[in-house]
Amino acid sequence: MPSLASRPGTVRLSSPGLLALSVPAFSAGLDSASSGRDAPANFSPEQILAFSQKVEHVLAAQDARVAILARMGRRLAEMPPGMRFTHTAFAVQAALPAASPAWRYQIQNLYQLKRSPDKSELVQDFAGDFFGVAYELEAGIVVPSLELQARLLKLIASPDYAALHDANYSVIANPYTEGRQNCTEFVLDVISAAIHQTIDPKILKTHIRAGFEPQKIEINALKLRLGSMFVKGISLDDHDGTPVTATFEAIARYLQRFDPGCALLTVKPD
Question: Model-level pTM?
Answer without folding.
Answer: 0.81
